[in-house]
Design goal:
By secondary structure, the protein is α+β, with helices and mostly antiparallel strands. It has 2 domains: about 120 residues, Diaminopimelate Epimerase, Chain A, domain 1 (Roll), CATH 3.10.310; about 120 residues, Diaminopimelate Epimerase, Chain A, domain 1 (Roll). The longest helix is centred in the N-terminal third of the chain and has 13 residues. The chain is globular.
Length: about 270
């Protein structure tokens, strides 16, 4: 084993203040590490996702792990990764952060206090839920669609979305990564829509703020509200704000991030 310390940070994403938004781990690797080691670190961090960055000649390899599994796409940990690269000087503020991932090439740009992520849009597909999924989620959805990773259920009001208390054990047995629940924001709100996200099958009962879910939410609400640019609020206990802009087959996700802690992994790497 090599005892050389490895940089590790804890970042709150999609928020301008600490202890809100969605916490992510960011680990900058000096060399490639085994999948089992990265999964163990993610389990030790016990955050919804921990990002692992490895420098390449023209960008960064980026992988995301929940405490239970590796995932194909994660918005808040990508936001946290870009934030850290600029904060610690591994990337200059005027430079674009380029990430090579299981979902293709993703980029991040610094826009003042905000960071914009260029992600693939997720096209909705018709979906008719089975009875067990309805029982697991609860409530009375108005409309269902399916995305690449998740099911989406629209409800009549923000109040209904906030009041949902899904059966997590039953929901964990359903196909797909998770379930997005959403509604138009209340009249007079600063937001266009609200959402929550449940993914117990991948070790995340309720995610505080889910950037990747907005790859489906943005085109879904854009079509229904007649807008390209919107602001969403994920109304979890911690809560977080996501600016979205639909650009053809891409979605631009805007968010802020705050570093809560920085340190080192002292041992265990190869």
């Amino acid at each position: 084993m090599n005892s050389k310390p490895i940089f590790l940070a804890h970042v709150d994403s999609f928020t301008a203040k600490p202890f809100a938004g969605n916490p992510a781990g960011v680990c900058v690797l000096p060399a490639a590490q085994p999948d089992e080691w990265m999964q163990a670190i993610a389990r030790e961090m016990n955050l919804s996702e921990t990002a692992f960055l490895l420098r390449e000649s023209d960008g960064w390899q980026l992988r995301w792990f929940t405490p239970a599994v590796e995932v194909d796409l994660c918005g808040h940990a990508t936001l946290a990764s870009a934030h850290i690269l600029w904060q610690v000087g591994l990337l200059q503020p005027g430079n674009v952060a380029c990430f090579f991932t299981r979902s293709g090439e993703l980029t991040a740009r610094k826009r003042g206090e905000w960071i914009e992520l260029d992600f693939p849009a997720d096209a909705e597909q018709p979906f008719s839920p089975e009875g067990d999924l309805l029982k697991a989620l609860g409530g009375r959805p108005l409309h269902w669609v399916d995305g690449k990773f998740d099911h989406l259920a629209e409800f009549a009001s923000e109040v209904e979305v906030r009041a949902l208390a899904p059966d997590m054990a039953r929901l964990a047995r359903q196909p797909g990564r998770g379930a997005i629940v959403t509604a138009r924001a209340e009249p007079g709100s600063a937001f266009d829509f609200v959402s929550r996200f449940f993914a117990p099958a991948v070790g995340i009962p309720e995610d505080p703020v889910t950037g990747s879910a907005h790859c489906l939410l943005a085109p879904y609400w854009g079509k229904r509200l007649g807008k390209d640019s919107m602001v969403g609020f994920q109304c979890s206990t911690r809560g977080g704000t996501v600016r979205v802009r639909v650009a053809g087959t891409r979605v631009i996700l805007g968010g802020q991030a705050v570093t809560v802690a920085m340190g080192e992994i002292a041992s265990g790497a190869k």
